[in-house]
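Good morning C.,

I know you're traveling, so I'll keep this short. The sequence:
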Amino acid sequence: MAINLNIPYMPDAIVVAHGDLHEDAETLRLIAVSRHIVVCDGALTRYLQLTDRRPDVVIGDGDSVKEEELERVGVPFTKIEEQETNDLTKGVTYALQAGWKRIAIIGATGRREDHSIGNIFLLPEYLEMGAEVRAYSPYGWLFPFKGSLTLETEPGRELSLFAIEPKPMSAKGVAYPFEMRRFTALWQATLNQVTEPTVTLYSEGIAVVFISTEKR
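The tokens, ready to paste straight into the viewer:
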């Protein structure tokens, strides 16, 4: 798999989660260019503060949606009462069932730490479900991968890897390269830095990579 971070991402759908939603240029660009918008019910208030664009669907268990806001956007509320998955997963599942596989997630992090951590480590499950998914904040991108991953990017960006399983991983084009290392704790492959325009990563198990939007 290859990802060119120098080219703006053009998702089939955005899923808007109930974390921090920032009014930065990239968030607004993603909302503008995405073909479809799926808003989790708790995120609707903040979403409506960012844009007038009508979402395709508002989805969730209904515990925090406001009737007047649903009337304002004029879209039906898709209520899914089961509690085995969170609203973000409901949104991603809806997008995949609609055939929208290139998915950007905004609002996945911020607010409560347990929600942020949970949402980040749901990304490997979305990969296994067949999604090409990225979670975005103004601070960076998070995406899951398995096997080989080539990143076209800019030197100076911060990069961290999170091994979901203690299986061999490699990294080249970074300040601290490694070859077929097994990491047994989530923090062990974090706080690296891009040194080459092309970064080559490999993981025998599913891993999550974070790369910062800013350069040092």
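Safe travels,
E.
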